[in-house]
Amino acid sequence: MIEPYPLSRRSVLVQVAASFAFLATRPAFAEADETAQAIREFTGGAKITPGKVSIEVAPLVENGNSVALAVAVESPMTVDHHVKTIALFNEKNPQPQIARFHLSPRSGTSRVETRIRLATTQHITAIAQLSDGSFWSQEVEVIVTIAACTEE
Amino acid sequence: MANALLDLPKTARKGEVIKITTLVSHLMETGYRREISGAVIPRLIIHTFTCRYDGEEVFRAELFPAMAANPLIAFSTIATKSGPISFTWVDDAGITLTESVDLVVTD
Amino acid sequence: MLRLRIILTFLLGVVPGGAITRADDIAPKDRRSGFDMMSAETQAMQKNDLANPAMLWVREGEALWSTPPEGGGQACSGCHGEARISMKGVAARYPVFDASAGTAIDLAGKIQQCQVERQKASPWPRESKPLLSMSSYVGLQSRGTSIVPAHYKGTTEAASRGKALFNRRVGQLNLSCANCHDDNWGQKLGSAVIPQGHPTGYPIYRLEWQGMGSLQRRMRNCMTGVRAEPYAYGAPEWIELELYLMQRAAGLTLETPAVRP
Q1: Does domain A29-144 have CATH number 2.60.40.2470?
Q2: Which residue of C has its CA nearest to A145?
């Protein structure tokens, strides 16, 4: 069983304090070249063409802890022509990877929805690997506004 | 206590694309936060989510700390035949949660 | 620290300077839930039960409702039957006056009291997952009903004490609840819109918390925000404030379990 919130009062207090400490002690943001390197690891250095991929996300969000995001790829999703993997990358979280979704002709569509964390205003990149080995991408910027009355 | 919410149809026609939405309870501790004492809170996230349809993998996700707490993942699959659709989440502590729903497929 | 300083600057800039303040109670026709002031995306998260993470807690509360406590006592369902029937409207009228305690009691406090007196069990601590889950499950049974605060002698007196607390300036920033939520609602604090501060959806799933929390936890955030010492969980001041807030929110629709940024 996954027991995610062992919420004793003490742990709430620790969590509360920790969420504040997060602001002060967050390690340096993933550098742009770290993101580039993570993308190279995913593609094996193959050429990436802008297009076919579309990211749906609000351009401005009121809290970066939970940002709804959908990604879809133009593809007939047949045995011969389908999306194998969609990978999401960020620019300024502590780590450049967000998620990798593995699809197949049995998926029917190439659309995936999820919720992600964004430490600050930054670009998000989605890269799709198709069954023919080609890579396609889209990049969008999301502005994360400063929340008031955060927990301390 | 199993703590996941699943949204998918109970029945579908053969060949129909069905949408599946999953929501699971998990803190998704990033490994980048600290306790008051200064000690780093160790990373504890769900790193893999797998959906199997009648035993065969039809969708898999690898997750990183940039996924929101209580992860939501929605995707689709083609209804092929009646059978169990199972969902498995595995976290860094090696804890596995599995839920299964029977889909009835009509011609 | 940077974010904190920015927020404080806004606090100081917006409120005590007091550009144009209303300085009155909010008229019933002007009362609006914080739901109306959040983004379409956050609203969508609340509106869809299959996307609202708070429903994970509700579901746990539902399981606990029919689970007997350790020690052989009855489950909640043993006395109260189906929550859908017996708990309908309950959260919309809490806190109530509790004759046995001789004071007002909130819903979470009532659940704890039931655990101790009826179930002969140890109470779940404030802000614990089971107490939040049960509060959410009970609260859900009143979703869509109007807030109808209790009006007994005991609660009326407690609510007036709550109103005094609401209007009292506290903390190093010397701000009262009313300075923001009566006088400056609709304006911005940082980039966030200041809501009217109605407790329409507690316990809430707050994105900031990445989890569920009570009204008391939310009010603690306000108090530490103005650099005041918050009351302890379960303190009578919180219940008095909640009583006043429910009177002040009378007529608004209960939304539990709500999502807030």
Answers
A1: yes
A2: C191
Q: Per CATH, which fold does C54-140 belong to?
A: Cytochrome Bc1 Complex; Chain D, domain 2 (1.10.760)
Task: Please name each of the domains of chain B with its CATH number.
Answer: 4-106 (2.60.40.10)
pLDDT tens per residue, range C194-233 = 999 999 999 999 999 999 999 999 999 999 999 999 999 9
Could B78 and A25 be called an inter-chain contact, meaning their C-beta atoms sit closer than 8 Å? no
DSSP secondary structure string, C46-89? HH-TTT-THHHHHHHHHHHHTSPPTTS---HHHHH--HHHHTTT
Between chains, do A116 and B68 touch, taking CB under 8 Å as contact? yes
Residues 6+ apart with CB under 8 A from C20: none
How far is Cα B66 from Cα C1, in angstroms, rounded to an integer?
22
Give me the residue spans of the domains in chain A.
Answer: 29-144
Q: Does any CB of chain C come closer than 8 Å to the CB of residue B27?
A: yes
Q: Which residues of C touch A (CB under 8 A)?
A: 1-4, 6-7, 10-11, 38-42, 44-45, 125-129, 132, 189-192, 194, 207-211, 217, 221-222, 224-225, 233, 261
Fold held by C2-47+148-260: Cytochrome Bc1 Complex; Chain D, domain 2 (1.10.760)
For residue range A46-91, list pLDDT tens digits in order: 999 999 999 999 999 999 999 999 999 999 999 999 999 999 999 9
What is the per-residue pLDDT for C151?
78
